[in-house]
Amino acid sequence: MLCDLKQSHAELLEFISELEAVLSADVIQVALLARVRLQLSKASSRRKRIVSDAIQRLWEGASAEEMRRLDQLRGNDVAIAALTSRRVREWSTETIAANREGYRAASSAMRKSMRERIATERAILYPLLERVAQHP
Predict the structure, then answer these.
(1) DSSP H or E stretch at residue 41
(2) Average of pLDDT values for 54-61?
């Protein structure tokens, strides 16, 4: 499970970097942007499933503090899903084409948030999953 989560995080970071490259161009290629956004969305969904499975697996043997941190991750996932859904609706391909600079700014905030989320998951889940892997 730890290997899957690490791979998922690496994949997400790769797509985040790809999105940055697309958005840094003088002219945004809308078709390329749509493809990268779709890949990022799919990768994010995979990460969410892995994290959910990890939390469920770790919950039983967790201390009270670990349960609090796992519950915090679970709660944050709900908020992130709602925010992501809203952003996708607000930033259609047509809206992006009409307001590229606005999308660049909104996307920058989203990418920062995604990187922070990955860092949080690494800090909380990696040590717990390593412990479970060593003592199944």
Answers:
(1) helix 30-59
(2) 91
